[in-house]
Amino acid sequence: MTLEGNKDEAEKCIDIAQAAFSAGNTEKAERFLLKAERLYPTARAKELLTRVRAAGSSGGRKTPPRREPAEEVRRRKAPTHQAPQREYTTDQLEAVRRINTKCKDYYEILGVTKDATDSDIKKAYKKLALQLHPDKNQAPGASEAFKAIGNAAAVLTDPEKRKLYEVRGEEAPAQAHAHAQHQYYARGFESDLTAEELFNMFFGNAAFPGAGVGATGGYARRRARSPEQREHAGLLQLLPVLLLVLLSMMSGFFISEPVYSLQPSSKYPVPRETVSLKVPYYVKDNFHTDYQGSLRRLEMAIEEEYIVGLRHACQRERNYRDSMAWKARNFGDSRQYADAQKLRTPSCEKLQQFHR
Asked: What pTM was estimated for this model as a whole?
């Protein structure tokens, strides 16, 4: 969506928020104002958000006094009881807001770097899951944040999904889906498991044995299942894992090992170089005696794989540079914009050398 399209959507969100604020619904007003800020930051949204939060923290209502019709008063037989207000700490609310409004990718959601190991990712998820579980954290948006960290952990602990997620590169916010920040950082990558199932895989069903049934009926119902039902559900959850293990074992019988590698290792220690583009690659010790295929076709495949890899890396570098420039331009930070313009794209430079 273009910047102008984002601006129009943001204006609609501000109008909805204004109407909700006038009706006294500060939570809805804040939700739509945060969405407007993600789509297209404006002074109008910031000013109204400040007023909404001030009204919400003071408990005041902005609804003008309204006289009820006499007929409605007669029909009302009992006073309306307000739902009990959910209690949460400032730290819990800030943790929810960070994930729902400030994170641009799955790595930021979990608070890890792109070099994080599988163990680092699981450790970060466990810490956040205990903090954001809706049975413990009842701040507005906690359920959405809990689902987001579940998706992040499920994708980044799956080697294939993580690789594809990184290859897609970092999209500029201007190209993000207009309806939800989640669609931006997820980029179409969703976990096959629900947030509840993933949590139970890490902690089991007794992570919060004393939790109530208010905010998360799904979690309460899960705990209320009989042992037979829980055992059956556990077996169903394990089926996809068992199937993957079986397929992985079977694939070893049909797929032979690669003849070469673009990275040196103990299995591929012998360095070589393609004749045409001088692309370095590595082979096994017995390559000269055991390989019977066409060396020319092999090196053509090596060069093609190398060029494709450079193109993906180049696109990621450009997307990152454009994203930083877009953010700086939107926030009026000329220094950051200049720094973004100076960001190098080494893969693109290397790719350019092959086209000379």
From this structure: 0.34
